[in-house]
Amino acid sequence: MKIGVLDVDGHNFPNLALMKIANYHKQQSDAVEWLNHLQRYDKVYQSKVFTFTSDVKTVVQADEIIKGGTGYKMYGDLFCDDTEPDYSLYPQYPHAYGFLTRGCVRHCPWCIVPKKEGAIRPYRDIETVLHGRKTAILMDNNVLASNHGLQQLEKIVDIGCKVDFNQGLDSRLVTDEIAKLLSKVKWIRFIRFACDTTMAVEPLLKAVEKLNKYGVKNYRIFVYLLVNDVDDANERCKILKRLGVNPFAQSYRDFSNAVSPTQEQKYFAWYVNQKAVFKATAWEDYRSKSKALSSRQSFVR
Ligand code: SF4
User: Fold this and answer.
1) Distance 232 CA to ligand 1 centre (A)
2) Under a CB-based contact definition with an 8 Å cutoff, are residues 104 and 142 in contact?
3) Would residue 160 count as lying in a domain?
4) Nearest 5°: phi and psi at 200?
5) Domain that includes residue 9, residue range
6) What does the pLDDT look like over 121-154, one tens digit per residue?
7) Is 179 helix (H, G, I), strand (E, B) or coil?
8) Which residue's CA is the nearest one to ligand 1's atom 6?
9) Who has the most CB within 10 Å: 24, 37, 55, 56?
10) What is the pTM (predicted TM-score) of this model?
11) Assigned domain for 251 exists
């Protein structure tokens, strides 16, 4: 069979489902390639991770088109989930990609994970994810909430591979013992947390203090910052700025994508994420000086 795969979100980040599907079909001796809209296929797999990504507009020529992914609000398990990913689809990325746990113990109202994956559960071993690679991007939602996850962190330390938990760790679960464990991990670049609400500030500060105790410097800490109320986000950001950690602002979207970010949220996120601007200017000054902002009626909502 001739199989086409289509990463609707673009090729900015490896699509794990498509890599597994590609390998599954190659194991059946099928020919697998990135979709070429000029070609006809027996079967096309079309994957979309983000609800806000526009769907593909160009005609897909295939006897069968199979869509999947959170972006299509399809939350079922992948039929070939146990298959190893085919990394040849994304030769520009050197890391292994995967999960050690699935699910989460929390129920944040904006997040699809509890609905999609349910309670936290063990999923994979780090060596299975690495599959011979030296570094891994791990997309776990709350690895610290799982005994299996903590055992895997110990194994990561023993193996000496480099990792990045790119969805962030839960600062509320950083005990002294866990901080010590995290300080021994080789991080690809950052230890990531989230500070999405005012209530998240205090646990984050405590986690940072514990990590500092074990020698982790603040410039190695990266903090996702959800931007809903901009003034509130700015107050959280000022604390993070004083601390010397790296905030990364994301405009609020609920998982159904029913609410689009406002212009003000988008500008604030832009301001925070342009590090030179963020370091040199306070948001209040940046906002008042920006003619572009003040000329936009939609800025004030
Ligand atoms: S802790 Fe993270 S993964 Fe868990 S429900 Fe909240 S936002 Fe989602």
Assistant:
1) 20
2) yes
3) no
4) -85, -10
5) 1-91
6) 999 999 999 999 999 999 999 999 999 999 999 9
7) helix
8) 108
9) 24
10) 0.92
11) no
